[in-house]
Amino acid sequence: MMVGGLGQAQPANEEIQGLVNQVKPQLATHAPGHESKDLKAVSFRSQVVAGTNYFIKVHAGDQHLHLKVHKPLPHTGNPPELSGVQAGKSHEDEVAFF
Predict the structure, then answer these.
(1) Which domain holds residue 45?
(2) Name one GO molecular function term (predicted).
(3) Which of 24, 28, 36, 49 is most buried (most C-beta within 10 Å)?
């Protein structure tokens, strides 16, 4: 993958689910009402920038959400940050850059 380019969709793994769990409280700001739902990571794409952007499809009750999570470089000591949410998605919707 080229730096700055968006990687191919991959099935979610434990690391990606961990990122979802870390940013779940931030949903109160970006998508009120969803922070109390069980979120299960389904798939993701990544983009290497000054850190990594993850575009993650999650199952959230009766719909899917697409989350944009920025994971800073380790030396910064900063935690992952939820930087965007797309609600009302279906299982068939491809997770993409937003």
Answers:
(1) 10-89
(2) cysteine-type endopeptidase inhibitor activity
(3) 24
Q: Tally the domains of the chain.
A: 1
What are the tens digits of pLDDT across the range 37-52?
A: 789 999 999 999 989 9
Residues 73 and 76: their CA atoms lie apart, in Å, by 6
Global pTM value: 0.90
pLDDT digits 0-9 by tens, 71-90:
999 999 999 999 999 999 99
CATH code, domain with 61: 3.10.450
